[in-house]
Amino acid sequence: MIRILIADDHAIVREGLKQILAETSDMAVAGEAANGQEVLEQVSKNDWDLLLLDIAMPGRGGMDILKQLRSERPELPVLMLSMYPEEQYAVRALKAGASGYLTKESAPEELIAAIRKVSQGGKYVSSSLAEKLAVYLETDTEKPVHELLSDREYQVMLMIASGKTVNQIADELSLSVKTISTYRARTLRKMEMKNNAEITYYAIKNALVD
Asked: Of 19, 54, 73, 177, most Cβ neighbours within 10 A?
């Protein structure tokens, strides 16, 4: 039996995942977490075969939690589940130590196949992501400028490019306006840009947002 810990701040998403996995005979959702701190507490108290981790959680995000778990519990397979398209976060998640990456639009059959593969020590990526990874790993390919950003700076950049204000971003990520403003300032500096319009243009041009 594959003992799974589900981490997502939306109760309706957790319930949906439990219903999907309840139909399989070799999997059991043995625990839930609604934020990063709960994930760390659950992992420290219990043994899990797999963690299904949402990237976008309030406070400490999934990427931050993933990196901590890789140092504290490197043997625990982590399958990232995200509402964000693969091109936005998948490469970053895999580089940070995730065993796989799925979007929340994936079919239930794909989720089950991914869990089985990852729980057995394998890596799971979709065929379209495999192609993107192949291109990314070509050594002569010049890396895009957004690769310079930290995970949180990158997240803030995408939210700015999606039209959200600093106040909206702060509210969504459960961080202060001052902290978000700092991330924005660092992003502009690293990417050598002057304003939000330039960030938005860059993100659209590089297919990071629709």
From this structure: 54
The predicted model scores a pTM of: 0.73
What are the extents of the domains in the chain?
A: 2-136, 145-205
What single-letter DSSP state applies at residue 124?
A: B
* Per-residue pLDDT at 195 exceeds 90: yes
- Please state the CATH superfamily assignment of the domain spanning residues 2-136 in this structure: Response regulator (3.40.50.2300)
CATH 3.30.499.10 matches 145-205 = no
- β-pair type (50-54, 78-82): parallel
Those residues whose C-beta lies under 8 Å from the C-beta of residue 149, and which sit 6 or more positions away, are: 157, 186, 187, 190, 191
What does the alpha-carbon distance between residue 184 and residue 167 come to, in Å, rounded to a whole number? 12
Cα-flanking dihedrals φ and ψ of residue 167, to 5°? Answer: -65, -45
